[in-house]
Structures are given as C-alpha cells and as structure tokens.
Amino acid sequence: MKILWFLLEKEFRQIFRDPGILRVIFIMPVMQLILLPNAADYEIKNIHITVVDNDHSSYSRQLISKITASGYFKLEHYSTNYPGALEDVEKDRADLVLEIPPKFEKQLVKEDESTVFMSVNAINGVKANIGGAYLQSIVEDFNREVRLKWVQFPRFNPQPVIQVTSANWFNPLMSYKQFMVPGILVILVTMVGSFLATLNIVKEKELGTIEQINVTPIRKYHFILGKLIPFWVLGLLIFTIGLLIARVVYGIVPAGHLFVIYVFAAVYLLAILGLGLLISTFTATQQQAMLISFFLMMVFILLSGLYTSIDSMPAWAKMITRFNPVTYFIEVMRMVVLKGSGLRDISGQIFTVLLFAVFLNGWAVLSYRKRA
Amino acid sequence: MKSVTAQDLVKTYGTKKDVVTALNNVSFEVEQGELFGIIGPDGAGKTSLFRILTTLLLADSGRATVDNLDVVKDLKAIRKRVGYMPGRFSLYQDLTVAENLEFFATIFETSIQENYDLIKDIYQQIEPFKDRRAGKLSGGMKQKLALSCALIHRPGVLFLDEPTTGVDAVSRKEFWDMLKTLKRQGITILVSTPYMDEASLCDRVALIQTGNILSIDSPAGIVDNFKPTLLAVRANQMYPLLLDLQRYEGARDAYAFGEYHHLVLKSGFNEAGVRSYLDRSAHEGVEIKPSRPVIEDCFIALMKQPTGAAADNHQPSA
Question: Which part of the chain is the ABC transporter domain (chain B) (predicted)?
Fold first, then answer.
C-alpha cells in the first residue's frame, strides 16, 4: 500500500511538473469544447445561389426574394444567361443555379403551370443534397401561395389529405448542441484517458527508466495501478470540467442523475485506460504509440455515432461499432443527458463496457513483462 | 563463496536469417566481495550479460546464479538483492535528486536513513543539489545519483554497466575510488567497461569479445600470460613505418599504440633483427625499445587467436 501510494505521488508530481501536459489536459479540452460545437454544425447555411432570371416579372422577383429571405441562401450572382451561371458553378462560387424561364409569370397565370430549372453543384454532397431540398421546399411554398391567390379552394379538399404535425421529444427545439456537446465531451475524455496513459508508459520505456524499475522487486500490479489510477482521476476531472462547461456555456443540464453519468464514466475510463495500457505494451517509442492511438481514434470517432447515425451504417460497420467503447459512452451520455435514463436503462451498456475493461486490462497485464 | 556464477550462457538475437550471437557459451565465477571487471569493446555482449544476470533478459540456454539464487527461478529474490546501474542514465529526469533517491528507497521497502551510511560518501557530493531535477545535473553528478539509487537498498551484488562511458577523466578516477570504498563494505561489484586502462583497477577481469570470453584472470596474471617479445617503435613518418612493420616477416602483429607502434615478435626474432630490417628502408628518427605489455596488448593478442585456442589456453586461473 505504501509503495502504491508513493508511486501515485511520484506520478502526480511528474504530471504537474510538466507544463506541456497540463496544457494538454486542461486548456485544450476546454478550448475544444467551447469552439467545436459552435463551428462543427450540421445545419447548412450560406448556400451560394446564382439565379438566371429570364423573365424579369413580379413573380420571378417574388420567388427570388423569398429564397434570399429564407436565411439559408446567399444570392451570389444575378445572371442573365445560363452558361454564365454555370461558370459560377465551375469556379465554385455557386452551389446552386436556379433558372427561371422566359414567360414564367405568363404561363403561370394563363396556363396554371410553369417550370423552373435547378442545377446543383454536387461536389460537396451534403451541401448539394440539403441545399437542393431547401430550395425545392421554398419553390413549393411559393407555388402554394400563388395557388391560394388564384384558385378558390373548396371548403373540403376534393381529395383526402393527411396533414402531419410532429413533436420532438427529449430535445424539443432540436438543438444541435444538446446533441453534440455530450458526444464531443466523450471524445475528449477518451483522448486524454488513452493517449496520456499510453504515452506516459512508453516514455518510461524510451528514457530507460522502466529498466531501472523492472530490476526492483516492485510488483507488476503496483506498477500498473500506479499508472492507471492517476489517469483515471484526471479523466474524471476533465469530465467534470466538461460537464461544467456544458452547463455554463451551453446551458445543458442533464435530465438524468449526475450519479448515473459518473458511474458509467468511471467504468468507461477503466476500459479506455486498459486500451492505452495495451498499446503501450506493444510499442517501444512514443511515435509508434501516437500513430496507433491516432489511427484508433479516427475509427472510434467515425464509427461511434457521434457525427453519423449508426442505424444508417451497413451491417458490417454496425458490427464494428459494437466493439467500439466510445459508441456506448456516447449512447449513454445522450440517453442520460437528454432523456434522463437511470442506471437500469443503461445497465446493458455498463455491463458491456465492464467486459471491455476486464478484457483489455487483462490482456495488457498478461502481456506486460518485466523481462524480455 | 561464489557470489555470481554463469555457466554456458548463450544468447542470440534476431530471427533465422540474421542471427547475432551476443553471448556464446559464457562461463565465469565471481567471488564474494570481489571487484570483477568485464572488459570488451562495444557490441561484445556486456550489456546482454548484465541484463541476464539482473533478471531482465532470459538466456537461450545456460544457467546463472546470483547470491546462489537462480536468475530464472528466483528472480523475485534476486531483484531484492542486486543493484543495477544501466549504461544509460535511467532515473526520472523530472524528479529532483532527493525525490529520485526516496523513490528507489521506497520501492525497495527501505528508507534513506536506514542505509545512509552506505551511500553517505557518494551522496554528500550531490546533496547540495538535492532539490535540483535529475535531468539538470551534470554527467558526473548524474552518475553519482544513479550509483546512490542503485545502492540505497544495500544490495549484495552491484552491477554497473559501463558506468564510466562518457564521463570525464577526473570523474572516472573518482568513480573508481568510490567502487573501492564500496568493495571494502563487502559488496560484490561487477563492472563492465570498454576502457582497457580500467582493467588494472579490478581484482579480476574477463576479457570479452563478440560473445566469447577470451581470458579470465587478475590484471597482472593476464599481463604475465603475454609471452612474446613486445617492442615499441617510432619514427618520423609513422604511417609508412606501420606498413613496413606489418610486412616484417618476424612480426606476429603490429598496431598503432599512442605515440609508438607496438610490434609483437614471433619467437626466434629479436630487437636487433627489427633494427636491421628498418635500416634497410628509408625511415628517419627510428627509435626502438622493449615495452611492457598492458591489458590492451593482451586483448589484441587474444582477439587475433582462433576462439577455440583462446578458450583452451586461458581457463580461469582463480
């Protein structure tokens, strides 16, 4: 016990003596948590549109002002011919081109029908998709207004119509940040937990200090606990700071109990630290460890359901997400923070992550050798 | 009592295609309280040997004991009793001098006070800097700290892997003085070094080359075993002289040695023969004198023998 205590003391001393590490641990996550959710936003705004108005009528002007008034579009250029507009697309100045044909208004009034042409720059798939859909719905809306003006609707619809109204549960305003901030916090805790522990042990290998430790009668579990506990504590500390930022900056108050979140975070950190430990037993230099961690982190982030929904992934990718501890934490965070789930609701996730922790730590301990 | 024994230790590195033999049937014994030197150039296998004896590395075959404990079976007991100072400075650079010492005292479940008498002479020299971080110490001070840390648990056997490599001449001398003091405390010390001149400071030395022990003897014994005539030769133009000496029919070996060349003669040749041989060439300022062999001469001679012969001729005499 005394030895373990002393090991912990030494570890914390070293951590707090390294200003670089302290910056990484405290300032970086705070900055990221404040900046990232504001910048990395799903909502597509500032779609550049070029309009080719061949009609110059009051209707065409109304349509255009309706588009620009929506707030999503920026009128990039008001072109007189289609080839000119296409050039904007080619030069990547415009994401969309809307062509209003000559006699647009006349046809609409006389023949009750007119067409507009929309061409989409599909290089940025997401923007093209969503921009196209926005524009379409604006045009439809415009169409309805025109019809209201010209056609007297009967009191009852001639055809049966289903009207849809919806309510958003758990996140009534569909606030993107409510959804993202807990996820980003999970990634930050994961990075600090696994990277720092890995690098710390590999650094001892690089400097040769592990050699000097190995020749002492120190027990394997003392050494490993001496490495795990400090980063477990730091991980929880960062997690707490992150939750505070979520509350102060984004006003996110978990709907569920904080205790539930912490129980999960504690188990989760064990699993992540086990992973870090495992990486460190298989690498000899900090560079190797960095590269492996970096690679794993990519997989973790992209296959965790942080940015893209797991349900829409192909079956094999879904399988991979089941082996990704980050997935479970993000799930749990969203469940507890948004829905207010309790311990019983997340017991499945806790159990799975506990399995991860046992497996990864067990493997790491078995492959950590004090002799070559 | 034997403090350290090694029996037919073999260690190879690498896979099938590219095998490097670090240790090839290495056997030796070290007496209790002896200062035993393992002398050999870089890559001779010194560090591998030390790592096996300190239980950090497993030998491919062969047996070794430290304090009558087997290095494979009783590794836990051995780790309590040996002090190891690796060739590279391996203490925590971001902890202070005092913290490092306290750290190693604690993990050996002892305290600085308990064994302070043992390290006092060494530690007092760095005590003024005890609040300085180990990484900021000079080379000589780092080495003293490392020695203090290796001694803090009063080990029975001390392994020092190239402790004087990269240390200035004054510190080297100081360091050997410290070792002599420790020896008086009854600690068995194994020290490896690439410097031949340090061999004479040991009680006994093992000369090691590419994993083979060439000779084990006291420094004086090794020198006595050097039978051929050794001449020191110099001239104004040293390099042509060396080439001529190497071409001489009576030369067993000729090599540069400080400001002289050393010439080892085959039996049946003498100084006068060399003089008349050199007179025939156009060397100016030729000076020839008999020379007492030093360890380095013995090492070079042993190195050039076929390895089998070396092992046969130089069985441990102690």
Answer: 4-235
